[in-house]
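Hello Y.,

Per our agreement to keep a running log of every chain we model this quarter, I'm adding this entry. I've kept the format consistent with earlier entries: sequence first, then predicted structure.
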Amino acid sequence: MTSDALEWWSNVRALGWMWVDYAAERTEEIYGKWNPVFLDAIIQLNGAGFVGTRGSTMSTLASRRVQSWHDGATRLIKWGWLGVDDH
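Predicted structure for the entry above:
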């Protein structure tokens, strides 16, 4: 699971999900600016499924990797208000 929405992570942690904390691990400082992006791509492409944000380039790429490489289920959702994807 990846996100740049920091306030969201406390809810994710409460559900028992885990993630890589690049700041705590000093990943960029030690390995360079692009390493977190590469690690996110590797983690995402090995998923059995993917849910991302419609319109996000990163979500689109991750979704296509999961579909193509693992025949995984994917969904790109809108965000902004309750029920935005109800149709």
